[in-house]
Structures are given as C-alpha cells and as structure tokens.
Q: What sequence folds into this?
C-alpha cells in the first residue's frame, strides 16, 4: 500500500515536471505564448475537458472506460440550446436540464455495464453513437446558440466563462468540482469501493459488497460531469453544432492517463488528472502558437497519448513482476 502511494506520488511529480517543461518549451518556441490572451485560452480550453476528465477518472479507476462523455456533453448542450431557443425555458431551468440529461446517460451506461453485462468499451461506444444521433434528431440538425454577453441573458457567459474584466470564471467552478470529487474519491466509502473494485472486483464481490451499485455510480458521476461540462462548453463557444464533439472524450481520457491513472484500474488520482488536463491544454495552445496546422496538432497530441499509454503498460508490467517475485 505504501509503495503504491509512493509510486502515485512519484508519477504526479513527473507529470507536474512535464507540465513545467512543456510550458517553458512553448514559451521559448511559440509566438506570444506567455501573453495574457494565450493564458486565458489555455484556461478556457481546460474548462469542459477538465470536467469530463475528473468524471471519467472514477470509471477508469474501476477498470472501465467511458467513450461517450464527449458526445454526451455535446448532446446535453444541444438539448439545452433547443430548450432555450425553441421551447423558451428560462436559462436557469435549461442548465438544470443539461446536467440531468448527462446524468441520465451516465445512469444508462451503468445499467448496460452492470445489469446487461456489456463490456464498458462496447456499451459506451454504443451510447456515444446514440448521443450523437439523438442531438441531431432533437435539434433537426440545426445549430443552437446560447446567449452571448451582450444579450439579455448575458449573465450566463459572465458567470460560466469570463467576466467583463476577463477573469476566467470557469476555473473557479473547475476548482470547486475538483475539491468536491476529491473528497468523494478520497474521504468516502464511494471512493474506497471504487478503488477496491478496480484492484480486485471478485474479492470485493465475495466480501459482500454490491459491486454493481458502486460501479454503476462511477458511470453516473461520469455522466453528471459531462452534463456540467456541457454548460461550460456552451458558455465558452455559445454556438453548438450537431455531430461535433468527436475526439473530446479522447482528450479527457488522455489527460487521465497522463496524470497517472492506470487503464487497468485500481490506481489513480484526481490531482494527477488535473495536471494531465493542463498538459493537454498547454500542448494544444502551444502548437497553435507555433503556427502549426491542425493536422500537426492532432499528430503530436496522438504521440503524447501513445506515450502515456505505453508508460502505463510498462508500469503495470513492472508491478506484476514485483508481485510474482514476492
């Protein structure tokens, strides 16, 4: 146990060191990378990915995966836009509906995995496609707009994106959500059971714990986070386009893995996830500052993801060897 804690701490330190090195590199090689506007863009692109990453960390620690979070976030945003522009609901009710929709999809994912015994990869891949299609069906494939800062409901943008002075409000909510999820994962039995399920699900089941309940709850938390993320995505971009959002879930999952959470389950931390989120955001904005076209940005991001997965595989092999020797 102590060794596991030390390894986790070491990985977080390495991830943080990588964050600093990457930032320094782009500060030297990029154009205006250290400017206020670039810093605000780094923070803005961390909002929604951060919520997704924090939520999916719970699922990955159980040994599962949730590929639907990006599509669920976009679908929640489209549902919210439809309710606001076409149905005429007040914006506060729309925000509640967006969170509720994401949570509902998370609950469905949990049922598919725990009750119908579908592999998490297949279940969430299917729900990803369902969410993408559902968003287009509900909106009639039309673009949906959220209120900008100049509209009567302009408080939406000021409260969830940036104030008129430019203060990044989304970071405040992301920190609050991080503290909330950190307490759940590290200070409650929910977190203890989630870690235990990821380490040895059968042993947890034999001890009399209802594995399906806690594993399903991990997917609900992931869906809830996707619903929250949709609010900050809508506040950041205001224009939501159907059939978009592919790849956002991979950014979030990559951030989780870069932060030290093992894809095999049982290991991980939300602090590491947050470091991974900012690594991904700095990488994205740093490549833009170097005037590299979008294909290069995708290429280098993919290299980072592959590197993180290879490190995870190597770490698990090394841990298994130690177990066999002992």
A:
């Amino acid at each position: 146990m102590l060794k596991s804690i030390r390894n986790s701490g070491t990985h977080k330190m390495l991830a943080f060191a990588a964050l600093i090195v990457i930032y320094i590199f782009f500060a030297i090689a990029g154009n205006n990378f250290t400017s206020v506007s670039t810093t605000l863009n780094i923070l803005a692109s961390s909002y929604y990915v951060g919520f997704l990453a924090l939520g999916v960390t719970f699922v990955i620690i159980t040994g599962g995966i949730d590929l639907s979070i990006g599509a669920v976030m976009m679908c929640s945003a489209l549902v919210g836009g439809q309710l606001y522009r076409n149905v005429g609901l007040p914006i506060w009710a729309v925000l509640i509906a967006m969170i509720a929709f994401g949570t509902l999809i998370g609950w469905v994912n949990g049922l598919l995995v725990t009750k119908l015994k579908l592999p998490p990869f297949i279940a969430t891949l299917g729900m990803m496609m369902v969410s993408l299609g559902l968003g287009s069906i509900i909106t009639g494939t039309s673009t949906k707009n959220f209120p900008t800062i100049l509209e009567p409901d302009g408080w939406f943008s000021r409260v969830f994106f940036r104030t008129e002075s430019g203060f990044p409000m989304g970071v405040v909510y992301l920190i609050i959500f991080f503290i909330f999820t950190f307490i759940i994962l590290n200070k409650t039995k929910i977190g203890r059971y989630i870690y235990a399920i990821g380490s040895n699900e059968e042993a947890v089941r034999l001890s009399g714990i209802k594995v399906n309940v806690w594993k399903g709850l991990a997917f609900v938390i992931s869906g809830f986070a996707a619903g929250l993320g949709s609010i900050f995505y809508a506040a950041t971009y205001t224009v939501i386009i159907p059939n978009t959002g592919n790849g956002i879930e991979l950014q979030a999952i990559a951030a989780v893995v870069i932060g030290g959470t093992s894809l095999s389950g049982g290991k991980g931390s939300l602090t590491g996830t947050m470091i991974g989120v900012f690594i991904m955001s700095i990488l994205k904005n740093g490549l833009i500052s170097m005037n590299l076209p979008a294909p290069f940005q995708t290429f280098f991001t993919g290299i980072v993801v592959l590197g993180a997965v290879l490190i995870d595989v190597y770490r698990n092999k090394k841990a298994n060897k130690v177990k066999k020797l002992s």
